[in-house]
Structures are given as structure tokens and as C-alpha cells.
Amino acid sequence: MPDQIDDLILQMQHLEAQARASQAARAAGERAARQKTRAQQMAAAAQEELAAAEKEQAEGEASEQRARAPGLAPLEAADLLVEGKRRAQDGKSRALKARARLNFALDQMDAAERLEWDALQADARASAHGQLEASGEDSARAPSAAPGAPGNSANGTGDGGPA
Questions:
Q1: What does the pLDDT look like over 103-122, one tens digit per residue?
Q2: pTM of the model
């Protein structure tokens, strides 16, 4: 009779750990999907901004070159040179900011991939607990395992095995 009770307690612990791991996997998967979507949108916007900034910078540098070309009126050349320098500098600073946003978006995508990996591991833990519960495989260890000891799902890790 005590063995049956221990087996039932162990099955309940596996079911509880399986439910916890399934819930963690689902939540991590949803977080990862949201974060990845936001990061992709941010990266696309940053790439567009970067392209526009680099184009503006190139146009400004081209204006500077035209201003230095011979045969242009001095006042017109001075205006063209000043405007070209301003556009090139503005484009350069916008490109720098766009690259920083793009790098941030790429870092966020890496973080989303790590979350997806965590969700996959949590799903694997849930599956393992489901298999252990169904097979009753570690019922021989149940009486000797103390609560909170490695190998017991009550240890707080929720994985039923050594951390």
C-alpha cells in the first residue's frame, strides 16, 4: 500500500512538473514570437533609414565635388559647398543612428532565438515528465529520494533531473 501511495505521489509530481514545463514553454514561445516580430519590424525600418541616410550623404559629397569643379560662379560654388557639407554631415549622423538601431534590432532577434531555444527545452522537459509519468520508471527511486533532492521534481527546477 505505501508503495502505491509513493507511486501516485510521484505520478502527481511528474504531472505537475509536466504542466509547469508546458506552461513555461508556451509562454516563452509566445514571448519569443512577439519579440522576433518587433525586432524584424525595427530592423526593416532601420535598413530603410540607413539607405536613405547613405544616399543623402552621397548626394552631399557629390554636391561638394561639383562646388569644387572649375567654371562655377564663386557665390554659387560657396552655397553649393556649404549645402553639400551640411547634407553629407546630416547623412553621416543619420546613418550612424540607423546602424545603431539596426544593431539593436539584430541583438533583439538573437535574444528572441534564445527564448525560442528556452521554449524548446521547456517543451522537452514537459515531454520527458509525461513519459516518466506514463512509464512509472523512477518509482523505484521514490522512497529513497528526499524532497528537494536532485532527481526529484520537488527540487524547484521543475525538470525532475539534475540541474
A1: 999 999 999 999 899 888 88
A2: 0.63
